[in-house]
Amino acid sequence: MPKVRFLNPHGVKSTGPLEVEVKRGESILDVAEHCGARVGHACGGNLACSTCHVWVEQGVESLAAVHDKEDDIMDKAFDVRPESRLACQAKVGDVDLVIEITQESLQAWLDENPDERKREAAEAQARRAAAAAAAANG
Ligand code: FES
Q: Quick check: 74 and 50 in contact, CB under 8 A?
């Protein structure tokens, strides 16, 4: 079974990569959904947004070529690179993939999960308060 490794499954909070075995033919978005990697998908995987934009750092040669509609939608994305793909359209082949989730997609995921975004904001605020208190105490 091929493997998919997400280098930054939880964005800046990632403590390391997340690697999972997958079935051939699964989309990268489906894999992310199953393992908890934060790939945004505002249109629900219907090729109408670019929030599932990822960079395929290894294994891109095993994916089917980008089709015209995917290419059109990719025009909406930020920081498009040769290794860019829309996770809802790219299906895993026989080769292992290494994926970096774009900042755009990580942000979209947080927008789609407001409770998690609030929790992370509260944690960040608590860290800043603790650092300020430590600095004030010497
Ligand atoms: S989830 Fe919208 S294009 Fe992939």
A: yes
Q: Give the residue ranges of DSSP H helices in 12-76.
A: 28-35, 68-74
CATH class of 3-112: alpha beta
pLDDT in single tens digits along all 138 residues of the chain = 999 999 999 988 888 999 999 999 999 999 999 999 999 999 999 999 999 999 999 999 889 999 999 999 999 999 999 999 999 999 999 999 999 999 999 999 999 999 998 998 899 899 999 999 999 987
- Output the pTM of the full model: 0.90
Ligand 1 centre and the CA of 69: distance in Å?
11
Ligand 1, from 28, 30, 39, 41: best to mutate by most atoms within 8 Å of Cβ? 41
Strand bridging mode 84-86 / 53-58: antiparallel
77 lines ligand 1 (CB under 6 A): no
